[in-house]
Amino acid sequence: METFQISEGDESRSIVPFGFGRQNILQLSYHFVLAVFIGVTLRLTTFTEATTISKVIGDTYKVKTSFLVSFGFTKAVSNLLVGRVSDSYGRKIPHSIGWIFGILLGIILLVLLRRMTGADVEDRQSWIFWYIFANICLGAQQGWTWTTNIFMFMDVAGPGHRAFSSGLSNSLGYLSSALASYAAAILSAETAFRVVLLTSAVGWAISAYLVNDTSAFVEQEIREVSYAPSSSQPSSDTVDEWEDEDGSRDMEVEKHAISQTSMLPGGQEQSPLVDSDGSFYTVFAVTSWTNRSTAILCAGGLFANLITSFAWGLVLIWGQQQGLSSVSLANVGSAFTFTKGITMFLSGYFSDRQQDRKRVIMGGFLLAVVGLIITAAADLTNDLRTIYIRLFLGGIIIGFGIGSVYCVMTAALSDHTLPKDRASAIGVYKFWRDSGYAFGGLLTGWITDISGGNFAFVTLVVAVLVVGLASGMGLLYREATGSSRIPPL
To answer: Where do the structural domains in the chain lie, given as residue ranges?
Structure first.
């Protein structure tokens, strides 16, 4: 890692340069490759499961979407753990651990597929435990690798490019995931799972032997970013954020959050910053519910992946039941995934330049509602071509909407967080966000079963919930300003 010496009076100290310049390009190239491998692993696994294994693993929608439940909850918990581990031990170690889970995933999927092939129905269903365990490994692999990949991109890029760097990592992964859908549609299930095993092994080798830890960038940011303590007590508006419903206050949470309330030039107050002061309870509590801005961001993240779960699970399963071919299903899945990947990159760039998170997030969710309504209309016809067109068009619009909010919410969370606690706070946010995969699988599977397979009804229920979320975002989220937001260069 290249460093420079600067002088401050009689003292000199080393600095590491932020950004995408020549000095960081080699390490960033490794992260580019790893982000691609992460996306390929995800889609080769989930697409093959949705279109192949789910057909023989059970009869109800709840069972068919169960792979999203085990995957989602495991990824959520992994994010919570990896954030704390990354703050304590750096990014490289947990990233390497994630690829070990990927290797285990590939082995289990290959063994499971061979045992289920040719077996009778009872024997197939007896292997559901291993099916769930494989998706636990997938959730762990994605949580430990992708989360740390985003951390490292954000560390190297610096505070002026948070949304852009987060969008870059996610875009690389999702665009690779979209292309992998076609590979999964063409390849046999066994070949797809062999590729999963291969990419995981190569990913581990790159992370273990070539990638450098980015802790030096975090330390550099801590030194450079100063937070002026408030010369007055927080306003009643701010204090209300740490009051419980009965009017009482959590003194530990209040102490740390208020201590990080900064004053802007001229005495204008900014939003409180998440600061754990070494306490995991505090950073979890402030991020999840006592800070209104970060709390609604956590809810927004959950809804974003609930919709993603719907697009990757129920839409493909229902479309296959209507008679769509594997290539058509790949087109539908990629319409969502590809547009989501492109939009994450663009929305992150725009959000950093305009320093406007709120309007981007609200607009993205409302655009997703439009896509959901179009998707629901696919259930109003029996014409296969019309079904395909409506699912495809709905997927594109939903992808634009969710892509608009995905990385901007991560950056917004980072805006409200001290550098030393960024990984822990983002880990908490991603715990709630990725639990959306699980809640999405549970909710859509359960409602589809009790509604007698009414796809339009399920889709519109999701749309109504998202409208409520967008309204809450408008009411509760406040932009972080001042020293917690460093303008882009």
So the answer is: 25-220+285-481
Pairing type for strands 11-15 and 4-8 reads: antiparallel
Instruction: Compute the half-sphere exposure of residue 310: CA atoms within 13 Å on the CB side of its CA.
Output: 34
Contacts of 345 (CB under 8 A, 6+ apart): 164, 167, 168, 170, 171
Helix 292-312 vs helix 326-354: crossing angle, to nearest 10: 160
Residue 446 has pLDDT above 80, yes or no: yes
Q: Phi and psi (nearest 5°) for 108?
A: -65, -40
In whole angstroms, give the CA distance from residue 269 to residue 258: 11
- pLDDT at residue 424 in the model: 83
Amino acid identity for residue 175 in this structure: L
In whole angstroms, give the CA distance from residue 136 to residue 386. Answer: 36
For residue 229, what pLDDT band results from cuts at 50, 70 and 90? very low
Distance CA 130, CA 140 (A): 15
Candidates 374, 378, 347, 340; CA nearest to 362 is 347
State the amino acid at position 469 in one-letter form: L
Hey, what are 3's tokens? 């460093």
Of 22-26, 238-242, 309-313, 368-372, which range is least confident? 238-242
Cβ density class 363-399: b for 16+ within 10 Å, e for less: ebbbbbbebbebbbbbbeeeeeeebbebbbbbbbbbb
Separation of alpha carbons 124 and 121, rounded Å: 5
The secondary element (H helix, E strand) that includes residue 70 is: helix 66-89
CB 420 within 8 A of CB 87: yes
- Tell me the residue length of the chain: 489
Bridge partners, residue 263, by sequence: 269
CATH superfamily of 25-220+285-481: MFS general substrate transporter like domains (1.20.1250.20)
pLDDT, tens digit (0-9, with 9 covering 90-100), for 318-374:
998 899 998 899 899 889 988 988 888 788 777 777 667 888 899 999 999 999 999
3-state helix, strand, coil in the chain (%, to 5): 80, 5, 20
